[in-house]
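Morning!

As promised:
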Amino acid sequence: MRALPGRSLRQTVDDATLITPQEQTRRDQRRRILRAAGELVAKRGYNAVTADMIVKRARVSPRTFYRHYRSKEDCFLALFDAVFAQVRADVGAALAEEMPWPEQVIATLRVIGDLVRTDPLLARALIVEAPTGGPVIFARYERATRALVPLFRRGREFHPRGETLPSTLEVTLAGSVLWSAYQRLIVGEVDRIEAILPEVVALVLRPYLGDEEAARHAGESVAPVRPLAAS
Amino acid sequence: MRELRAEAGTRSARWHALRDALLELGFQRDYEALGLEDLLARAGVSAADFRREFADLEDCYRDIYAVERDRILDELSLAAAPYTAWRDRVRATAYALWRAVSVDERLTYFIFVGGRGAGERVRREVEVAMETIFDLLDEGRSEPGSLASTRTTAESIGGGIWNQIGAAVTNGEPMAERVVGYMMYATVLPYLGTETAEAELEIPPPPLPAPLPR
């Protein structure tokens, strides 16, 4: 394919990445709708938001909204799933091969903290408001919380009697991690999320590594605060 | 000791009818799907009588939530009152809480799940309950040799346990009494370390005062 005279090609033609203008439009619409849903839910609470409000904020027609989503709940679940998938991808990217388990835990907690710090509206929608959205959304929230359980449970390998630790320990710890973010969001202290990381790290590592090792890793988890990306 | 505030016994028969209807309907559907007309029909209360007591559905929900919350908190206070040591107070509170959430799953759902989705006024009442629990846990920071440095530990553990109770009742999974020992382990560990926390797994439930009348 030849570039126009005086212009070089800026991207390689690749059938797999080409999308039609119609598909681009659909993606933009979905992105606007999901963003609008997240912002509204964060500011007003899930139950106070209607599909009409999402439609207006997203600047789409009702027909367009219902072409993408069956209901407000369907829309919010799509938002939740999209963000959860992104967080999982970010965690995957943060975990280097052969990274020791304590550092994997710290890296994972840091990804969650980064979401809270860089997009507090979205974090509020998913961490504060999602549990209030009825049983289907609550189940999604619980599933996301419990996604931390397998990672934490690997810590039992480091405890001499790992299998005798309480069976509900990891569920409690996973809920505690999300709740530490919840509290910062509801009191408007997202700038403190980095400051509390060492205490949350110690909370998670202590049952498996013991007091001293957990404290050592917690101390090492302190990193310079990264500036927020310019919006 | 927290000042006792329970006042369900002073409420009218109409209030109790609304309360029972709200617990029943709130267990079946979200707050969003809960209509005032449905509530009144279930309770056998007229709209005029309702308006004499409450401004709207959220106001009714808030009032009933506050009364039920205070009754449970009073039970927890009475359980903890005989003890001075932090661990003993937390343990008595934990077992009293387990007893309270084991009696009526509709009430447990109402307190631990439903309230959070019922509007900003109700959510503030939920936060009163949670902050009371956090305050108790946070006293662990004053224990000699405490490992926790800020209130974050109390909020994290307390919130995690609150969520666990909510998830259990949502999934229809009664919490076994032994789980209280596990929660004590998770609670004590960040303050007093692994050895003390592991000891919690062997300590039997303390005697508790009788539950308050509903």
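The interface with chain B takes residues 45-48, 131-135, 138-139, 142, 145, 166-169, 171-180, 182-183, 186, 196, 199-200, 202-203, 206-207, 210-211, 215 of chain A (CB under 8 Å).

Hope this helps with the figure draft.
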